[in-house]
Design brief:
The chain has 28 helices and 20 strands. The chain is α+β, with helices and mostly antiparallel strands and 814 residues long. Helix 2 runs antiparallel to helix 23 and helix 23 runs parallel beside helix 26. It is globular.
């Protein structure tokens, strides 16, 4: 039987291409996610533990360890190719206005080096530096350039560039041991870590025991295999990567479900194409069980082939992704357990998806199977039981989600309610999809005979049409859910940041006790992206009336109309009987009366708590500030950057103009940009991942049209014989594909907006924020357009197949 299956695959490979593609995409998703996460984990472990990345054994020295005894014991230890101290430090390198946070590592000996010199040479003397090429590019530095550091008397000359992998955070540089020795930090005497490289053929675990024995008489030392040290130091990070891997596998499960729907449709097509073959086998004595075993074995074989191809494709995609991040520098990690699971899942979903089509396709009488394929006009109505159950699920899910918003577990209840709604919609699709297809079909019926035929054909097999639309609903609905949820969460969080920290950028001397230089104020006002600025005066005063009775020498800021124009949601004026303090000042309460005594005057004011005031300071009207006396003009400068796209550039420019030792720079803009960047990256990743599910669903659209073409072979031939042009036949299938896509996408979008709103609202309730529903129209409309265009593309092959059929050949068996 296996030989028959292999012969069928060899002689008719085109029949199985769609199935193999659907399987391969699903498995590639799972395998690629696991390989990518494992490779990124390994890369981050190596980068975060770079000095010990090539070591086999690590010796950690405590404060009471005898350094000289350690050096003596490790010199010439059996089985070790190299043993030496490891020392590093972190500093900021500066070349003009370009800066980079860089980890400087004492250059290890050749056996322990992990990178190579690409240009120039390794550092040999104090003050020489070899930089990774990525760090040099960021600093716009070349060999021979002199770089400044955070220490006024320390500079480095670049003498070499290495092939170090790029890093998102900490760059890498190498210095000679003399650099540390020159600063009184001798590596042999001050290093807290020694690294040991095993000789070729020596087991690292055995070497660790040998090193431990050699250090037996030295106290306060710990000997560990380097792999164990790397794993322990990155345990928390690895846990976060595992969570990310689990998130990816959740998306992979979605792709697998959509893949099962597509595979089931594909097997329905395969069995319909071989209806006569089944009838002939039955006629010559084959039992239904034998035929079912054969086709299930065929499904198993396709599952194995598709899963194997998926593993290869996943590895290739992971290699491309990790090469972009730089983690491929450390090698491609292949997690055997995860890949075995992905392979097994691919085979299992193929066999499970094929069971129902095989059972349905082989339950035909021999003579019936030998007849030409009849047109399928089945219009089975979903049972009353299904309608009641699905209706209850939808109503119950919506009620639970909405009512749960007023509880303390809003997010958990929202997730459970959304799951009930999703199940009700997906399983209830046969109830409403045919009706929606008829409704959408009304829009095209008036454009001629061909569109009218397409609208009728779209609902001739309600079950299959519903299945195809369901796959699109699932994929599109999840994408829109993420888009709406992320956009709403982003808008809500930005509103919260604006309310809690209304000032984008604030610059002052430390404590705002001195005036900012006029030249600096002018430069800050002219920074690109800054739309408005307000200079605030200050004075020193004593505040009385708080819980601890008095605050001596507190900085009080003067608030004027120009300040109101810069800060978000700021009051137009501060009344002369009010004093604004931070809303985080717990000792004071709104409406409380406090006293304020300055150099030349005293005031009695009512407290108003507000986020515009920094903690530990106060704010009054400029008139009241003048009454206090000894006013310092331009003590603080507020800058407004309304366009978030300019935020990073503006913040960088402000940092370059100010010196952290002289000026204090605060504000909400960096926090807002960081949060927005994280959400945008998360949305891009998840949208791309769920795009795989959309791709699989669109393969299902093509398969559905293919089966429709097969079932209507004689009908299509008759229409061709009566004068229907080939291009009209192709147009008819195109319209069918578009109708299916429009219904699936429309339901997915509506459900996705609801789920996104519910999730964002529940999350906002958890953090006591006011939610704002936002639909990212460009992104959502772009996804809709892409899905519909892809559905149109999916109709090309079935349309060509139908148009190529000769009317006389197709009608020959009538």
């Amino acid at each position: 039987m296996l030989r028959q299956v292999l012969r069928e695959l060899r002689f008719h490979p085109s029949r199985f291409v769609a199935t193999v593609i659907a399987i391969a995409i699903s498995v590639a998703f799972m395998a690629g996610s696991s390989i990518l996460v494992a490779t990124e984990t390994n890369g981050f472990q190596r980068l975060q533990s770079l000095p010990i990345s090539t070591a086999d054994v690590v010796v950690t020295l405590g404060p009471d360890a005898d350094r000289a005894a350690v050096a003596k014991a490790l010199t010439g230890v059996a089985g070790a190719e190299a043993a030496e101290p490891s020392l590093s430090m972190t500093t900021t390198l500066r070349n003009g206005r370009a800066t980079a946070l860089t980890g400087l590592i004492v250059l290890p000996s050749e056996p322990l080096r992990w990178s190579r010199i690409m240009e120039g040479r390794w550092p040999q003397a104090a003050g020489e530096l070899a930089l990774s090429r990525d760090a040099a590019n960021g600093l716009q530095a070349r060999i021979g350039d002199r770089l400044e550091t955070g220490y006024a008397d320390v500079t480095f000359t670049v003498v070499g560039l290495t092939d170090e992998p790029k890093s998102l955070f900490l760059q890498t540089g190498y210095v000679a041991p003399a650099t540390f020795a020159a600063s009184g930090d001798d590596p042999a005497q001050n290093a807290e870590t020694w690294i040991v490289k095993a000789s070729p053929g020596t087991d690292p675990a055995a070497l660790a025991q040998t090193v431990s024995a050699a250090l037996g008489k030295v106290s306060d030392v710990e000997v560990q295999p380097a792999e164990q040290v790397r794993a322990e130091s990155l345990k928390k990070l690895t846990g976060e990567f595992d969570a990310f891997r689990n998130l990816l596998w959740a998306f992979a499960a979605i792709a697998a479900v959509v893949g099962m729907i597509t595979i089931a449709n594909t097997f329905t097509i395969l069995l319909a194409q071989r209806r006569r073959q089944i009838g002939l086998l039955r006629a010559v004595g084959a039992s239904g069980a034998q035929i079912r075993r054969r086709y299930l074995l065929e499904a198993l074989t396709l599952g194995v082939i598709g899963s194997a191809l998926g593993l290869l494709a996943g590895a290739g995609l992971a290699a491309i992704g990790s090469s972009l991040t730089g983690s491929l520098f450390w090698g491609l990690a292949l997690p055997a357990v995860d890949l075995s699971v992905a392979f097994g899942v691919g085979v299992a979903i193929t066999v499970l998806a094929a069971v129902l089509p095989v059972l349905r396709g082989t339950r035909v009488r021999p003579l019936e199977a030998l007849q030409p394929e009849p047109a399928s006009d089945e219009k089975r109505r979903a049972g009353i039981v299904r309608g009641v159950i699905c209706g209850l699920l939808v109503v119950g899910g919506v009620a639970a989600g909405v009512l749960g918003l007023s509880t303390g577990a809003a997010l958990q209840i929202a997730i459970a309610g959304s799951a009930l709604v999703a199940i009700g919609v997906l399983f209830g699709a046969p109830l409403f999809v045919p009706g929606l297809l008829r409704l959408v079909g009304l829009l095209v019926r008036g454009f001629g005979v061909t569109p009218r035929l397409a609208a009728q054909n779209a609902v001739r097999n309600p079950r299959r049409a519903s299945t195809t639309a369901t796959a699109l609903m699932l994929a599109v609905g999840l994408i829109v859910t993420l888009q709406v949820g992320t956009a709403s969460a982003r808008a809500t969080m930005l509103d919260q940041i604006d309310r809690q920290r209304p000032v984008d950028i604030s610059v002052s001397t430390w404590g705002a006790t001195k005036s900012l230089p006029g030249e600096l104020v002018g430069q800050l006002r002219r920074v690109s992206g800054v739309d408005g600025a307000a200079a605030l005066p200050s004075a020193s005063a004593d505040l009385t009336g708080a819980a601890d009775d008095s605050y001596q020498g507190m900085t009080v800021l003067g608030y004027g109309p120009d300040a109101a124009a810069v800060a978000a949601d700021a009051p137009a004026v501060i009344a002369d009987d009010q004093i604004y303090v931070s809303d985080n000042w717990n000792e004071l309460k709104d409406g409380q009366q406090v006293g304020l005594k300055g150099h030349t005057g005293s005031l009695r004011l009512k407290v108003v708590k507000s986020p515009i005031v920094p903690l530990g300071q106060a704010m009054v009207s400029t008139a009241n500030l003048n009454r206090l006396g000894s006013v310092v003009p331009d003590a603080m400068l507020w800058l407004s950057v309304p366009n978030r796209a300019d935020a990073v550039a503006a913040a960088t420019a402000v940092s370059e103009l100010t010196n952290g030792e002289q000026y204090e720079v605060t504000g909400a803009i960096i926090e807002a940009v960081a949060m927005e960047s994280v959400l945008n990256v998360l949305l891009a990743i998840t949208t791309a991942l769920l795009g795989v599910a959309v791709l699989i669903a669109l393969i299902g659209v093509s398969n559905t049209l293919g089966l429709s073409v097969l079932e209507r072979t004689r009908e299509s031939a008759l229409m061709r014989a009566l004068g229907l042009q080939a291009r009209s036949l192709r147009l008819m299938l195109l319209i069918e594909a578009l109708l299916l896509a429009v219904v699936g996408v429309a339901v997915g979008v509506v459900a996705g907006i609801y789920f996104g709103w519910l999730g964002a609202t529940a999350l906002a309730k958890q953090v006591a924020a006011d939610v704002r529903l936002v639909v990212d129209l460009p992104l959502t409309l772009g996804m809709v357009v892409v899905a519909i265009l892809a559905a149109a593309l999916a109709s090309v092959l079935p349309g060509r197949r139908a148009a190529k059929a000769s009317p006389t050949e197709a009608l020959a068996d009538i």
